Amino acid sequence: MDIQLKRGLLDVCVLAAIKDSDSYGYKIIKDVKPYVELSESTLYTILKRLETAGMLTVKTAEHNGRLRKYYHITEGGLERINTFKTDWQEIMSIYRFVTKEDK
User: Fold this and answer.
1) Is 95 helix (H, G, I), strand (E, B) or coil?
2) Is the pTM of this model over 0.90?
3) CATH number for the domain that contains residue 34
4) Per-residue pLDDT of the chain (103 residues; tens, 9 = 90+)
């Protein structure tokens, strides 16, 4: 798969994992695992990129005596998910065109 396309898809997967409630690294990996394999190092690179882009915010809170980072989706992150949904319709249209002879 094209690396840029995969990168964009993983970004949206991470945003979707925190769309309904704040979450932390291990839980995000667990939530996306049924759909896509995501390593810890890849996740934290994505989270940093999304934070820099203003698509999520980070807060630190104590949990069981340890500090844990919680990620919260911003309006920009929600807009990115909506843009993806619109773009996906176009991608599926192209897919149907490319595979029409396979039927």
Assistant:
1) helix
2) no
3) 1.10.10.10
4) 777 778 889 999 999 999 999 999 999 999 999 999 999 999 999 999 999 999 999 999 998 999 999 999 999 999 999 999 999 999 899 999 999 877 6
